[in-house]
Structures are given as structure tokens and as C-alpha cells.
């Protein structure tokens, strides 16, 4: 315990200017360009409790954007997609998923799917070399049949690739794989580890790493994209769903203090009936003394986290990157940034120079933001 306390103190004392190398990431001048799409919104009726805890009265429904990312490798010009969102014709999903949509369990607002958005943006589908799934859930795997067979597919090695109808309960279909090269990333072969996460150098030049982030679904992985020699975008998939599952933490608050106007607002907007901290008083929440994240990973039966304990461990590891100035962490359904970050055709590569992280990471505690869930509605 003494050793753990010393290590914790050393971590918390790390200056805001700490370099990415402190996490074990090798230096490189190779980069990828990252562009972001909001494919649409998926609504889970009375489903918030399967994502987060606690769920306060009036916040039982979950509304989530679905982000997809276009990555272009600087040296080779290869184009990759990381996640695809949900197909806009969910009635053509595997029957078990189509039935869930039909019951109204999920509702979809998606005028266009990612393939239409790409083509309208001047990106021919034939130029997409590879699609990477963070994991094989319906709001991430899209409709692979719309991509030509020359587009490869990359998945985590533990992904369940059984398909309907061979598997009557299969959520994938033969059209997801037919005729294309499928590469399974086996993290057992990884010889790199960043912040406790096994990593594989995708292009072997330090521009793009795939990280093992188990828990949400077998085969779940995260992408670490180097966008300048010293700054990164972390594409976290469903490592967590709400920014409040990762924030605040002592190191995060030290490096990214909450803006004064929001800090003052949180004193009365965050309910002390549900949230507390050492210097809080009844009716007056104290954010700076809160040493743990506001929300927890849901661990009830039916949770979206297949293994909540492993999910929490993966989250903790990604949160150390989130607390550092060299990394912009974006998870697939973060509602708090839906109107705050630049979308395609803009690039995310200059996020650090433009102060986008400091300007957005506390959006989730703004009571005017749709992601605010910290007092009864």
C-alpha cells in the first residue's frame, strides 16, 4: 500500500507539460490526418441505466451521436475508416437486431449513412483501403456491403465473427465479410504497452497504434493517431459513453482546471443528493475536491458492458491519457462535444494549436449542454 501511495503521488505530481514519451510512446514524425463525421443519433428509450450509474430522475432516456472517422496516412496516402455508425436501413440488419429496432427499443435519426457522407464529400469508396471496427456492435459496423471488396476489414481477434443464418442469434451477416480480406489484431503478439494498454504499430512508423481496451465487448480496441509529432487523437470507441465516466480526476483537474463560470455553476447545478466530495455541503457541490469520476460504468444485468470490471480497468487506463495535454480523447457517443468539435471536411490535427481540448472537456458539466445529467430534470 505504501508503494501504491508513492506511485499515486508521483503520478499526481506530474507537471502539465509532461511529454507523450512518459507513457512509453516512441518518438516519430510520421502522422495521420483525422477527420470526424457525426453519422446520426441513436435513442435508447429508458436505456440510460445500461450505460451509466447513477441515472437521475428525468434522464432515463439515452441520446447518443455516432461518430465515424476518416484517417489518411501521410506517408502512403492510405485511407482508413474507424467505425461506421449504424446503417440507415436497420430493418436489413440481422434478424435479432432488426427485431430490437422494430420494438422501439432503439430509435434512429440518420438521414444519410457514412458511405453517402463520404461520397458527397468527394471521397470515393474505392479509395478506402481499410475499415477498422472498434467492436462489432450495430452502431459501429455500419454496412460493409457498400464498400468494394478491395476494402479490407480490421477487427480485434476476440470478435465473434459468426454470422446469421449459420448462427440464428448472430448479429453479423455474411455480407459483412464476403469477398474481402479480414485481419484480426492479436494483442498477444504486441511488444508495446502505453499506459498499461497493449499496443500494435499499424503502419510500423509510429503514426497509428491500435490499443487493446477490453470489457465493453470481446475484441474491443482503441486507435491512437499521431496528428503532429507530439500530439495525438485517441479514438476510444465505447471504452466509455459519457465524459462523466472519465472525469473529473485529480490529474485531469490539475492539467485542465474547470473554467470559472462553469465551476461556479456546478456549485448549485450538481445535486448533492446524488454526488458528493470532501468539501461539499448540502446543496452546494464542490467540484475541485472531487477525486473520482462523477459517473460509473453500468454493471446491472443488461448493461452494455459485457465485462464491467474489465471495462472499468480499460477506462482507467484511457483516462490517464485523457488527463494529459498531449492527447485528445474522443469516444464514439460523447454527446457533450456534438456541436463543439470540427467535422469533415475539417481536420482534427490542429486541435492542440487551437485549444480545442481545454475549450471542450468540461462541456459535460454545463447545465445548458445536452450531456448534463447531474441534477433531476
TrEMBL record:
Record keyword RNA-binding present? no
InterPro entries given in the database record? MBL_superfamily_lactonases (IPR051013), Metallo-B-lactamas (IPR001279), RibonucZ/Hydroxyglut_hydro (IPR036866)
Q: Which UniProt keywords apply?
A: Hydrolase, Metal-binding, Signal, Zinc
Domain Metallo-beta-lactamase per the UniProt entry, residue ranges: 65-261
UniProt GO molecular function: hydrolase activity; metal ion binding
- Zinc among keywords: yes
- How far does the signal peptide extend, from start to end residue? 1-18
The protein's superkingdom reads: Eukaryota
Name the Pfam families on file. Answer: Lactamase_B (PF00753)
Task: Give the similarity note.
Answer: Belongs to the metallo-beta-lactamase superfamily.
Q: What is this protein called?
A: Beta-lactamase-like protein
Q: Which organism is it from?
A: Mycena pura
Amino acid at each position: 500500500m505504501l508503494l501504491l501511495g508513492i506511485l499515486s503521488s508521483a503520478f499526481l505530481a506530474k507537471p502539465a507539460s509532461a511529454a507523450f514519451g512518459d507513457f512509453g510512446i516512441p518518438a516519430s514524425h510520421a502522422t495521420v490526418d483525422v477527420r470526424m463525421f457525426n453519422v446520426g443519433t441513436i435513442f435508447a428509450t429508458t436505456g440510460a441505466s445500461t450505460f451509466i450509474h447513477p441515472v437521475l430522475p428525468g434522464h432515463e432516456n439515452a441520446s447518443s451521436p455516432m461518430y465515424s472517422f476518416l484517417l489518411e496516412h501521410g506517408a502512403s496516402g492510405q485511407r482508413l475508416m474507424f467505425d461506421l455508425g449504424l446503417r440507415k436501413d436497420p430493418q436489413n440488419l440481422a434478424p435479432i437486431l432488426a427485431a430490437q429496432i422494430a420494438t422501439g427499443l432503439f430509435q434512429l435519426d440518420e438521414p444519410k449513412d457514412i458511405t453517402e457522407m463520404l461520397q458527397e464529400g468527394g471521397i470515393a469508396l474505392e479509395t478506402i483501403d481499410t475499415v477498422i471496427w472498434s467492436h462489432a456492435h450495430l452502431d459501429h459496423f455500419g454496412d460493409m456491403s457498400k464498400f468494394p471488396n478491395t476494402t479490407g476489414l480490421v477487427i480485434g481477434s476476440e470478435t465473434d465473427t459468426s454470422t446469421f443464418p449459420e448462427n440464428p442469434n448472430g448479429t453479423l451477416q455474411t455480407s459483412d465479410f464476403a469477398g474481402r480480406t479480414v485481419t484480426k489484431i492479436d494483442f498477444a503478439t504486441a511488444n508495446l504497452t502505453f499506459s498499461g494498454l497493449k499496443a500494435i504499430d499499424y503502419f510500423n512508423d509510429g503514426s497509428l497504434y491500435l490499443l487493446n481496451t477490453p470489457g465493453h465487448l470481446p475484441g474491443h480496441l482503441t486507435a491512437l493517431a499521431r496528428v503532429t509529432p507530439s500530439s495525438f487523437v485517441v479514438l476510444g470507441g465505447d471504452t466509455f459513453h459519457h465524459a462523466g465516466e472519465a472525469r473529473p480526476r485529480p490529474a485531469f483537474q490539475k492539467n485542465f482546471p474547470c473554467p470559472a463560470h462553469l465551476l461556479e455553476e456546478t456549485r448549485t447545478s450538481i445535486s448533492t443528493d446524488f454526488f458528493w466530495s470532501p468539501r461539499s455541503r448540502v446543496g452546494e457541490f464542490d467540484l475541485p475536491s472531487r477525486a473520482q469520476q462523477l459517473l460509473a460504468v453500468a454493471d446491472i444485468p443488461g448493461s452494455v458492458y459485457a465485462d464491467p470490471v474489465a471495462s472499468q480497468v480499460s477506462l482507467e487506463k484511457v483516462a490517464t491519457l485523457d488527463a494529459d495535454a498531449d492527447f485528445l480523447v474522443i469516444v464514439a457517443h460523447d454527446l457533450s462535444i456534438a456541436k463543439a468539435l470540427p467535422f469533415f471536411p475539417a481536420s482534427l490535427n490542429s486541435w492542440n494549436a487551437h485549444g480545442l481540448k481545454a475549450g471542450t472537456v468540461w462541456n459535460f458539466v454545463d447545465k445548458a449542454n445536452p450531456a448534463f445529467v447531474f441534477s433531476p430534470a
